[in-house]
Write a sequence for this structure.
């Protein structure tokens, strides 16, 4: 008997005891799909002084690098992806900075352009919960009538003291408010929350509470990240002074399994450990072996005889 044969988790056809993004795209789009990160040249209200300056302590300093047109960025990444896997579709992912932070007419042009990229089956838009004004919501709903949209909102933590310490410049109450308005707007929009484990000063209980609080809001998807120390960030300064110590792998795996157990069983786990660009990653070194981390999560859930949502209430 393999781990796959004894897997009690319903949204899986492998040994995975959580709903992977791959399982989701095969179920919804008929095959594996690749996300293509794009930089549309937006800024962030947490960098330009509107909400804060300097940005979140883990975010690269400076604004968008704007690496060419959306189409150029997309085509370059699309052909790389197609050389690696047989793919059924692509998800243009407006990732860099805050992709709802512009006048509605600018957003409309960018969303229309991204949604029209060849092979696109869904559009993903990364943003902050405090950047969802009525005009923005109207544009998201409008484009979602042409192509399904996932709005990816950075939550990171539900502990306001941590949010302040990392210079997030919004509270959990503001997050809930923005999320509530996004849900109320309707359209063909799914919502993905991002949370980060290993934030400075956070205990295991804080991280688990963040997952429990997120679960209570019933997101369609979750991305669980490890805090990476990137060069040229305020966090890197703390790390180099010895003030910040990254999580160890075993601790991360154990916390992630606790969090998965608390999340809604049908929530898509779009990521379990983030990927950092090699040229800017300072620490921890173990996160470079992403497959090893994911394998350890599989082994730990199997060892516990557990799965995503086992303790969801
Ligand atoms: S992490 Fe996101 S919200 Fe924070 S400063 Fe960077 S772009 Fe802005």
């Amino acid at each position: 008997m393999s781990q796959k044969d004894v897997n009690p988790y319903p949204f899986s056809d492998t040994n995975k005891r959580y709903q992977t993004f791959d399982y989701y795209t095969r179920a919804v789009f008929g095959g594996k799909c690749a996300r293509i990160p794009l930089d549309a040249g937006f800024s962030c209200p947490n960098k330009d002084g509107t909400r804060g300056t300097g940005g979140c302590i883990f975010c690269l300093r400076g604004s968008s690098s704007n690496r060419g047109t959306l189409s150029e960025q997309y085509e370059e990444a699309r052909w790389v992806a197609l050389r690696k896997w047989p793919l059924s579709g692509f998800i243009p992912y407006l990732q860099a900075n805050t992709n709802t932070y512009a006048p509605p007419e600018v957003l409309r042009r960018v969303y229309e352009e991204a949604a029209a990229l060849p092979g696109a089956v869904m559009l993903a838009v990364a943003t902050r919960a405090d950047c969802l004004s009525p005009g923005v919501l109207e544009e998201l709903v409008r484009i979602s009538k042409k192509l399904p949209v996932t709005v990816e909102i950075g939550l990171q933590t539900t502990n306001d003291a941590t949010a302040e310490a990392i210079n997030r410049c919004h509270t959990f109450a503001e997050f809930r408010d923005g999320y509530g308005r996004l849900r109320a707007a309707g359209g063909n929009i799914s919502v993905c929350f991002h949370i980060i484990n290993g934030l400075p000063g956070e205990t295991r209980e804080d991280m688990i509470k963040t997952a429990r609080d997120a679960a209570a809001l019933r997101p369609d998807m979750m991305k669980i990240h490890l805090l990476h120390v990137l060069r040229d960030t305020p966090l890197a300064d703390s790390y180099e002074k010895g003030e910040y110590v990254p999580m160890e792998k075993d601790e991360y795996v154990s916390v992630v399994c606790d969090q998965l157990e608390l999340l809604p069983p049908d929530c898509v786990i779009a990521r379990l450990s983030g990927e950092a660009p090699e040229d800017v990653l300072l620490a921890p070194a173990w996160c470079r072996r992403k497959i090893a981390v994911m394998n350890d999560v599989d082994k730990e859930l199997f060892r516990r005889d557990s799965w995503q949502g086992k303790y969801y209430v």
Remarks:
- The mean pLDDT is 96.
